[in-house]
Amino acid sequence: MIGTLVIFVGLLGLVYASSATSITEVKDSRDAMLDVRADQLAAAGQERAMQFLATAVKNTSVHDPLGGLSNLFAGGATITPIVGEALMDGASQIGSYTIRMTRIANTATSITVAIDSTGYLPDAPSALAPGERPTAWRATRSTVRYSLAPSQVFDYAYFINNWGWFYGNTIYCNGNARSNGQFDVAGYSPTVTGQPLYDSVSWNGVTAALAGYQDDNGDGLMDGNDGGIWSSWDIVGAQNVQGNGGKSSNQHDFEDPVPMPNLSDLSRYEASAIQKSSSITIGGVEVCDAVMGDETGEKQNIYLVGTAANPIVINGPVVVRGDVILSGVIQGQGAIYSGGNVYVPNSISYKNPPTSQRPANNTQAATEAWLTANWNKDFVGVFAKENIVAGNYTNSTWQYYVGSWMNSSLNESEEDAGADGIPNTRNGRDGIAGTADDDVLEGDGIFTVEHYTAEDAALGLIPAGKSVGDAIPGTGEDIDGDGVYDPGITLADLTIDTALNTANWAGNMPASGIANYGSISSMTANNLDGVFYTNHSFCYVVLGSATAKINGSLVSRNENIIYGTPTIQINHDSRLLGKSASLGADFLPREIEAPELLRWEVLDQDPNHYTVAP
Fold first, then answer.
1. Pairing label, strands 527-542, 379-384
2. Which contiguous run of DSSP H or E holds residue 14?
3. Tens of pLDDT, residues 252-267
4. What's the pTM value of the predicted model, to 2 decimals?
5. Are 290 and 278 in contact, with CB atoms under 8 Å apart?
6. What CA–CA distance (Å, rounded) separates 542 from 391?
7. How big is the chain by its Cα radius of gyration, in Å?
8. What is the spatial distance between Cα 243 and Cα 229, in angstroms, rounded to a whole number?
9. Residue ranges covered by each domain of the chain
């Protein structure tokens, strides 16, 4: 009996211990599940925070890419824009999250933000009954940095934010080529040499060194044979291309589009020009300070013609609020931003050009040697808010060819191009109407853009001067970023509408004025030194027996280039390599880069516990 009792008591102890262990395991398992759910709520809050910041960027991206982020913290370094926001599964609430943001660094070209997100079950403390506590919570912090950098479009010798084409056997693109629409060489055999890209470049005053070679053809080599052709649609006639761009490994179709920066608002470029005390002089006389047209009575337009004896001397980036006429010899390093059209009636040549248009080859050693020799040589960017017009646009032959190409269905510029901003893509990649990939907004006769909402207003995401219901510049079909529908570009958009005299034009306009544009322009303007950019159309007709050359880069929404010369070359200026460290970085249009995650951590304490919803 005693032995039986001992055994029975022992069994009871085992059953109790087993039951207690099971209860503990079930509780631990339940707590672990709650922790996982809270962790996912905190992660959802982080995603919501990034969406919030992305909206702040989008709402001001055209005129001030970092402005929307900076404005969030105008009242202090810390904000709590979202308190106890519910995460729903249909009609059921899963939990909630609260988001706090702290600006921890702010420079002219970057802003760094710490995001504290806390996920709560079943709800945030501020939504619970007095004395009630969340059953579970998890707090995380991510630190992200938003930076401005020269637009990626300048990685290319030829970049078109539309359909791109090389219709000619004697087209030589010495660098990379890219289009955000289809890239077409038809039955021709143009040459694209390609250009390896680098993450950075350093200059110690004596030598240049590149770093971060990008192996974009994926062969595992850093031999200088990278680069080629990119397209966000297909590449037509790819097999006919000569050079590295003709290799299948160097042809990249259906890539994500690269957005163009926008010049519809030049105020931030004006601020930069003023800060740098930029100027243009000719013959020792200043003809343009940092901003032309910002002072009462100051002329809006400028005429600049340089000679070898009296070159146009540029020092830093300047802004001209009206049109620019630019030709002849130019010297220095800087940029000209125009609020209208840029007219190039004759060739533009550097006074002190690089020793050669390109390095001896595309290897890193040859490129560094070229950079070292040419870092301090002349470098100029020419950026037009409207169009760039090269050659004699008053000539009937010029007008015939440019007008015909403007009217081509392949070269549409009307702002009814659909969700992707590219014409001729209505039927999608499969080319079949009525399928899921159709761009149904294209050609529907409606200017489709996003608008500022009441939610934007409540969250403080509407910039000064804008209201609920206003179009958000640069969204949807607003390709040029002015928030207003634009029909297709025509020859009329290229015409100078102010008399060519000193009453209307600053610079070195002759005292007697110019009777007609044809008298100062040429159909053989075969040399264009500089980096050329327009978010509208680059229009150029060039004839003659000499090779036509663009030495720098050509970046445009549309292009109407017709050459009657034996060959045409577009030579990429290697001083554009190295992103934010490149020589041209201070002069180029900048855009905001994708946010960089600097740090991620789980917090031991809840920074949002005492936050109360407004």
1. parallel
2. helix 2-60
3. 999 999 988 889 889 9
4. 0.89
5. yes
6. 7
7. 30
8. 11
9. 32-151+595-603, 262-347+362-408+488-564, 414-472
